[in-house]
Specification:
The chain has 1 helix and 3 strands, in the order βββα. 22% of the residues lie in helices and 25% in strands. The chain has 79 residues and is an alpha+beta fold. Strands 1-2-3 form a 3-stranded antiparallel β-sheet. The radius of gyration is 14 Å and the shape is globular.
Length: 79
């Protein structure tokens, strides 16, 4: 039996860091849901990057902000 998956988006504001790849603050919460599971992740509209998936909004935002720190740590400082 095939599952029907619905998709919703919602603009995110507040305590969320910009995209670690393009610097955009044009971020949305993407929610994919079927009868058994709801999965949320942050999406950058500018470069179409997705963050890690979580079952709750706060978890998706926390993971996005944590991932931002890892991407930032990889920058070449020229030293």
């Amino acid at each position: 039996m095939a599952h029907s998956i619905s998709q919703r988006t919602q603009r995110i504001t507040g305590d969320i860091l910009p995209c670690p790849f393009c610097g955009s603050s044009d971020l949305f919460l993407m929610c994919n849901a079927d009868k058994e599971l709801e999965a949320m992740s942050v999406m950058c509209i500018s470069c179409e990057t997705y963050g890690p998936t979580h079952a709750v909004v706060k978890g998706a935002i926390f993971a996005w902000n944590k991932r931002y720190k890892y991407a930032d740590a990889g920058e070449d400082t020229g030293e």
